[in-house]
Structure prediction request, 143 residues.
Amino acid sequence: MREVVKFSECFVCGDNNSCGLKAKFFVQEDGSVATEYKVEKQFVGYADVLHGGVLASLLDEVMIKAILKDDILAVTASMDVKFKRPVYVDQIIKLQGKVIGSKGRVYKTEGVAQVGGKTVGTATGTYVRAKGGLKDLLKRSLE
Prediction:
């Protein structure tokens, strides 16, 4: 499986971010992108419960990686997250994201997070292909 390109300082996927999640994202046979993340105690919101913002960040990243895997540089315009059940320290979250449509510079995506085969969160997102100076900045970040 091919790993999707990343920015080394990214909170979610960067190898060089000392306080980040360091998740690795891989292209699947069906064209989606997936990752697994083991919940660490430093990212809780309540005792032993993963902070919802961290789960939302993982869902955002798996959805944008589904666009980035095709060398399309984009940024998040909006996302809707639904939390289904709590996630606890030491559990492994499996996340999958895919593009469900595009028109012009706008991409629509879906993401799902599961623990032990049960859905713990879902998301939909709208992303916009970067242009001009922003595109140049994003491209430099990934080199």
In short: The first strand starts at residue 26 and ends at 27. The helical segments are 52-68, 132-141. Strands lie at 26-27, 33-38, 44-46, 49-50, 74-83, 92-103, 106-115, 118-129.
